[in-house]
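input
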Amino acid sequence: RLGVCVTKVNGDSVAVATQVQTASCRLVLVDGGHVGSQPYSDLCLYAEKVCVGGYLLVDDIANGHPDVTHGLVKWLASARGFTHDALFSFPETCSATHWLSKLCSFRREA
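output
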């Protein structure tokens, strides 16, 4: 055993956020709402769940979901303690990773 615990949580992002302790996660993948203010709201809710040294992954930033990109830009303007780590781009033809076509990661430094 590697000492890694993975929990996949599905549901309404606001309701699920109440079940996760602040700064308790080493990795959070945000693949929530895609329209309106929901992407920004999801980032604000889940960024605080990432512990120092952990990663926040943001999905769908550049593949036909402009509100996700706008929410990310808005969140970055006020985000503290995170540094951009990587941008992953997978070919749309690869069905196993189709949902990860554009993924951006941020590392929590403080």
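quick obs: DSSP finds three helices and four strands in the chain.
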